[in-house]
């Protein structure tokens, strides 16, 4: 299960890279009348479920967790939920790349933490290091670092046009 779990842990990153770099192909694939952000959210949640199943298969759980778990996981999830609260589904799932007008957000954690959703996800993963073998956390974290790099370079000329 180890190799299969590693594949599933990294599954989202080629998908995110493709959608970020080729947003028009994603919009076209979604088809007329379908919101590409909603479809992306659905696919992303499905992949996330597969990732958690894969990690569960290679993890060993003990209770209670170490004391560092609570602040790392709590703050990481706070960042994730706050980003989603401020950006909404369209802002979180590449709406700007699909030609949507997403307002610029400056409220916390934006302006204080660069890439707060990815940082929150990394903190949440690190919190689980006592349960999940380190190589899976490292692999997943490297994927987030890759996405931080990929998403830091946006060419507005490659933005998609929504299908009418």
UniProtKB/TrEMBL annotation:
First-tier enzyme category under EC: transferase
Subcellular location(s) of the protein: Endoplasmic reticulum membrane
One GO MF term: phosphatidyl-N-methylethanolamine N-methyltransferase activity
TM spans (from-to): 42-63, 118-146
GO cellular component: endoplasmic reticulum membrane
Highest taxon listed in the record's lineage: Eukaryota
One of the GO biological process terms: phosphatidylcholine biosynthetic process
Protein name: phosphatidyl-N-methylethanolamine N-methyltransferase
UniProt source species: Jatropha curcas (Barbados nut)
